[in-house]
Each structure stands twice: as C-alpha cells, then as structure tokens.
Amino acid sequence: METQKPLTPAAERILEVAGKLFYDNGIHAVGVDTIAAEAGVTKKTLYDRFGSKAELIALYLRRRDERWRERVRAFADPRATPERRLLRVFDALADWMRTENARGCAFVNAHAELPAADHPGRQVIAESKRWLLDYLRGLATEAGVRRPGRLAEELLILVEGATVAASLGVAPTAVATAKRLAKGLLQEAAE
C-alpha cells in the first residue's frame, strides 16, 4: 500500500464526509456537489485536493482498508499462538460488524458499483482482499498446518460469507458460526 502525503484539514473533512456518504448511500448515489456541500467546501476545493471522484473513492476505500487492517492486528495478540491469532480474526470481524460494517463489506459494495477494471478503487479492493488472504496464509504457515494456502483460502471464504450473511440479517450469528467452523478447519489442517 502506498503512503499518502498528509491531507489538509479541508481534504480530511471531504474524505470523512465522502466516506460516510459513500458507505451509507452507495458510491453512484452520491455526487461531488453533495460531498462538497456537506463538507462545507467548493467543488473546486474537492477537485484540487483529490483530482477526481474516482481518486476520492480510491482514497476512501484505502482509508477504510487501513482501519480494517488495524482492527485485525489489534485483535491479534502477538504473544498468542498462530492458531489463536487466526481465530481472533473472527473476533475482529465481529467487532467490525458491530461498529463499522452495518451495511456489509464496503469493498464488496464498491466492487458492485465499479464495473470498470481500471477504476482506481478496484485496485484498492483487490489489495484489501489479498492482504487478508496473505495475513491468514502467514499465520497458517507459522502454525505449521498442512496446506496453509488452502486453509487461508477457506478462512477467507468464511470471513467473506459471514460478513454478507450477518449484514443481510439472514444469519445473525454468522460470525460466531464462521469462527466455530474455522476451529474445525484449523484442527483438520493440523492433523
């Protein structure tokens, strides 16, 4: 992930407002006029700071990804075993769902709204999902399980499925169920 230069206070305000509006209403439902008005800036300021709505979307997704990664790492006690840290990803997800993810995964939602493969937001989305897969693979490798790549992929699918099922209200205990299933997969992979 590339390092962003610090944003001005106005740019931070624009980004905060845009992030809330994009997540709550959908990316295409929110225009730059609305973002500028809600942030108390002109459209010129928005374009001066971000260049385009596409770049603003990409930075909104990047910031959200940074928060998600911080949440996952915060739940992973470095003194715990790799197996325990793998399962703590589901605790991080449960907390994330309670505090920041009521409308489901912002990356999946954005992906559905950004059909152009070259949209800068699509790159951020892919990086986010790859990061979690790599993180899970690293912990699975540390745990010494058979086929750590396979286990990581299975756990990623559980995380993604639990996110969707919980946010839709279809399975309110989806994250706890996914964690229970992850324990079984982890035990199976360790045999």
TrEMBL record:
The protein's name in its UniProt record: AcrR family transcriptional regulator
PROSITE patterns membership: HTH_TETR_2
Stretches of the chain forming a coiled coil according to its record: none
InterPro entries: Homeodomain-like_sf (IPR009057), HTH_TetR (IPR001647), Tet_transcr_reg_TetR-rel_C_sf (IPR036271), TetR_C (IPR011075)
Pfam families: TetR_C_13, TetR_N
DNA-binding region listed in the record: 31-50
Residue intervals of the HTH tetR-type domain: 8-68
The entry's keywords: DNA-binding, Transcription, Transcription regulation
Claim: DNA-binding is one of the keywords in the record: yes
Keyword DNA-binding (UniProt): yes
